[in-house]
Amino acid sequence: MADIQTFEKIKDIRDKEKREKQLFHQEAVDIFERKAEQLYDALKKKETAVYEFNRKLSEKTVQAGSFIQHQNYIARLEEKIDSLQPSVQQARVKMQQSQSKLTEAHVEVKKYETLIENKHLKYQNWVKSEENKHMDELSMQQYLNFQNR
Fold first, then answer.
1. How far is CA 110 from CA 12, 14, 21, in A?
2. pLDDT below 70 — which residues of the chain?
3. What are the pLDDT digits (tens) for 57-83?
4. How far is CA 13 from the centre of its chain?
5. Per-position DSSP letters for the chain, written without gaps between them
6. CB within 8 Å of 43: residues ≥ 6 apart
7. Residues in contact with 139: Cβ distance below 8 Å, sequence separation at least 6, in sequence order
């Protein structure tokens, strides 16, 4: 029974580590979502700007100053997109790594839960076996006492 308590303490420690990794993973997911949203917004702005620019070009009402201004705006958006892509990729990698560590921690906790469950079953079987032995002894003594009368 003492070894079961030891395994339960170890499982509790592993469970605490798992909860910490869950928090770390959630933080990584949040960071990834924020960065991905920034990238998405920049891509959406660029798409809208290009669409508007092409629409104005098709109407042939674009002034030279407006043309240059639109081109500069699109160029700045492309620079922003180019600068955001590596940070989004880094955030994705961190998120995937934290997911992997969380999965490992979950598996570790499950191992100890299974081990503890097996130890409990083994102990219960041993208790039943001891009870059966004791009952057999009592039956034998009663039988012998009855024969000696």
1. 11, 10, 15
2. 61-62, 149
3. 887 766 777 778 888 999 999 999 999
4. 18
5. -HHHHHHHHHHHHHHHHHHHHHHHHHHHHHHHHHHHHHHHHHHHHHHHHHHHHHHHHHHT---HHHHHHHHHHHHHHHHHHHHHHHHHHHHHHHHHHHHHHHHHHHHHHHHHHHHHHHHHHHHHHHHHHHHHHHHHHHHHHHHHHHHH-
6. 81
7. none
Tokens describing residue 90: 């880094």
For 12-21, which contacts have Cβ atoms below 8 Å and span 24 or more sequence positions?
14/105, 14/108, 14/109, 14/112, 15/109, 17/105, 17/108, 18/102, 18/105, 18/106, 18/108, 18/109, 21/98, 21/101, 21/102, 21/105
Say what the pLDDT of residue 149 is: 67
For 122, what's the count of Cα atoms within 13 Å in the CB-facing half-sphere?
9
- Say if CB 31 and CB 94 are below 8 A apart: yes
- By residue count, the chain amounts to 149
How confident is the model at residue 62, as a pLDDT?
A: 65
Phi, psi of 62 (to 5 degrees): -95, 125
